[in-house]
Queue: 4 jobs
Job 1
Amino acid sequence: MRRVATVIRLRPEKEEEYRALHAAVWPDVLAALHRAHIGNYSIFLRDGLLFSYYEYDGDDLTADLARLAEDEVTRRWWGLTDPCQQPVASAAEGEWWAPMEEVFHDDGPLGHD
């Protein structure tokens, strides 16, 4: 399993719209994510930045993301969500959600003593 984190800026005037979209994500979008071996997907918001985290359990993330980008329903969904977003200043040319570097991870037990 591979953990993936990315970041993008949320346009302040689009926050309400973005929240409403994600309060009722289309089932076909979720199904497409699952077909791409993407699970445990979360998006967090702080100070105008959207942070996404998901877990990938497939064999070829690049190919699965390419198939996801070809999915008609996903493309329609992105047609609604993309106008709400703006790449961060450090994003590479043509990059939308910028990848983040993992600097720490602990997968120890969650129980408390």
Job 2
Amino acid sequence: MAASVNKVILIGNLGRDPETRFTNSGSSVTSFSVATTESFADKSGTRQERTEWHNITVWGKQGETCAQYLKKGSSVYIEGRITYREYEAKDGSGKRKATDIVAIRV
């Protein structure tokens, strides 16, 4: 079987302050969103911008450090991997899917 790679590199700005919570086993997990903006020219030559939002999860001490030093609007460099998850909608309307980046280096 061929080797596989799941690696993401993002440089962007925080869309909200980091939030840290703790699992039942006592592990800390910090989450925040990052916006990346791409500029391009459309078919008519007009400059356009497209902003993508990424959900970031950082485990352990590194996540706690992110919560301490990063704030909404901060520039950030992230290396990590893509993960996918399903969850039940709060309004009970069914399952939803989400894509997250689990950060390895911030």
Job 3
Amino acid sequence: MRRTRVKICCIRSVDEAALAIAAGADALGFVGPMPTGVGPIPDDTTRAITPHVPAPISPWILTYESEPDAILAHAERCAVATVQIVQHVDPAVHDALERRAPWLRRVQVIHVEDRGAVDIMAAYGAGPHTFLLDSGRPSVDELGGTGRVHDWDVSAACVASVTTPVFLAGGLNPSNAADAIRKVRPFGLDVCTGLRPNTALDPARLTAFFDAIRAADDAVYGA
């Protein structure tokens, strides 16, 4: 049976990482320096946490960098093998990183402001290993952590337009995770603010989020 993968973002400590992993997370997001949004931590803190993340769980660094050298340096500084590129960058950036660092997994964020997101995604072709649909507004340097749901009809069109795995982010929480799976059919869900009523990762909300996902997977993808 198909299973929706889950990334728990905005991890800030070893304890939060362990909590997310115990709940069933497939990936953990660590937010690097950002102009806006919630959850940034110093790169030194990220590097201190990532050795505690066991395989096959994948630690991702969310990077504001947009040039190949700077993106690669950020990944190496944080000791991670997956970068989430939060800006819309030139597709050639992915080509350059593939040549220089074929070991580096690249997740390209697509900010869903309107149906133009489908065309933005198409322009990347097969460059990124994964896409992530979020609710930012790049024109004002709003690049994630908004807690805002975007148009899931557009998200569903984005998912249907590619064979590359697509994560869905933006305003997810235990009450709408099942609807997101039914309407968008993403490869995975990515959540931050919806599990953090007081900035800290909330164990009860975390459990409820995974319960909702598993029930939705059974209903949508079960035999």
Job 4
Amino acid sequence: MYNSRSNNLIGFHGCDEDVRDQLLIKPNQVKISEKPFDWLGHGFYIWENNYDRALKWAKDKQKRGEIKKPSVIGVVFTLDYCFDLIDSEFIEMLTLYYRLLEKDFLSIGKELPKNKDVKEDEHKDLLIRELDCAVIEYLHQRIKEEIINVEHTPLKEFDSARGVFTEGGPAFPGAGVQKKSHIQICIRNMSCIKGFFLPRK
């Protein structure tokens, strides 16, 4: 009843300037991320209402030689049916699908992927989220299979995923707030993206 979220939201996508310009000119040609360590699974990533964090992310990618000119594009989007990891219902669902995935891996004698630290990260925030990504992608796949194979399933595919992430070390000595805390959105259904815009300075 409360899981459909159709109101428009504003977010920001950190990227190379060329990617920004292409999205402005060709807004239907959205490239999704399908990396094995995507924090919320595969999709198009948006920093919810956080221009500065999107730009910092792009600048960090430039330092690693992954992009030439860091930039940010604004995104107008809806969450629609959202796998929201701020909501207890979906956290419990994630735990359930983790157990199912663990059982599947045990049955074939394979080890589950693990979340890992990046060597340069002094805060040990487990930035390589291979386990999280595997569980979330497994959940989406199992739901898709049930929709195809079960006539009257209550399940439906998610349009987006959303999570709060705390990282970057304390904002000040003894703080519970961390420097890089943010809300991240992963859009799976591209019709949730209503448009792109060039943010004002």
